[in-house]
Amino acid sequence: MYQDLENKVVVITGAAKGLGKAMAERFGREKAKVVINYHSDNSDYQEIIDNIKAAGGDAAAMQGDVSKEEDVKKLISFAVETFGRLDIMVNNAGIENEVPSERLTLEDWNKVIDVNLTGIFLGSREAIAYMLENNSKGSVINMSSVHDRIPWPHFAHYAASKGGVKMLTETLALEFAPKGIRVNNISPGAIDTPINAEKFADPIAKKEVEALIPMGYIGKPEEIAACAAWLASSESSYVTGLTLYADGGMTKYPGFQAGKG
Q1: Cys bridge to 173: 76, 86, 90, 183, which one at CB 3.0-4.6 A?
Q2: Does some domain include residue 257?
Q3: What is the CATH number of the domain that holds 30?
Q4: Residue 196: its pLDDT value, please?
Q5: Strand pairing partners for 172?
């Protein structure tokens, strides 16, 4: 646990499920004040708020589309109006869909890029603008993927968006380091989240994925949330521009693990 996170104000996009939910509840256990951004009207966020409050933190929720500039501006304003300030921005919201590249429509391309890359740009920009205006040495954490490094056929738009997030993170980190604003990136591997539930329910498909992971198992959302808590805390005070691969070794060429090649 990180005592310096107590009472810090954290905004997490796409926080109603999956990695966002795990991060929101982890910051709750750190006794932070968490703003849960969600997209869909039927998102089940009340349980998350209850869990955060039960753990000693505080929470509020706001609907919004991270690909829309006005929604992101409203989200930051909501955090400041509700809890008095903004300390940590976690740009987590993301989408994916499988399409062979020769059939990938411009509509599909734009939809993924708008959420996964433009949404992270907007969240980062608005958070940094607030921090500069208030002379606050805050932290921005972006959520990428091992596919900012590993090519992924049938997911060209997704891989391109995540590659963009990595370079965006590094550029912002360099630009705002003199102001004491840290910008880092988490790139998860295969994680047991709702988006992967159908795939991992198939024992054969699950074994195929596990074969790509040197540590041999599918990661838990809580393991990614632990990375976010560390990056947000003063324990990582000298860390900026990092892409933290939390992937069980997936990016380390697992085919060579037994001396093959």
Answers
A1: 183
A2: no
A3: 3.40.50.720
A4: 85
A5: none
3 state SS of 187:
strand
CA angle 253, 22, 16 (to 5 degrees): 115
Domain residues for the domain of 68 are: 3-248
Flag whether 180 is in a domain: yes
Q: Residues 158, 217, 238, 245: which is the catalytic one?
A: 158
- Please give the single-letter amino acid code of residue 36: I
Q: Average model confidence (pLDDT) for the chain? A: 96
Residues pairing with 11 in the sheet: 35, 89
This prediction's pTM: 0.96
Q: What is the pLDDT of residues 183-212, one digit of tens each?
A: 999 999 999 998 888 888 899 999 999 999
Beta carbons of 248 and 214 less than 8 angstroms apart: yes
Domains identified in the chain, total number:
1
Residue 199 in domain: yes
Question: Which residue has tokens 């989408």?
Answer: 95
Mean local confidence (pLDDT), 36-50: 91
Report the chain's terminal Cα–Cα distance, integer Å.
42
Which residues touch 41 (CB under 8 Å, ≥6 apart)? 63
Query: Would residue 253 show up in a list of annotated catalytic residues for this protein?
Result: no
H helices present in the chain, as ranges = 18-29, 46-54, 69-83, 106-113, 119-133, 156-176, 197-201, 203-210, 221-232
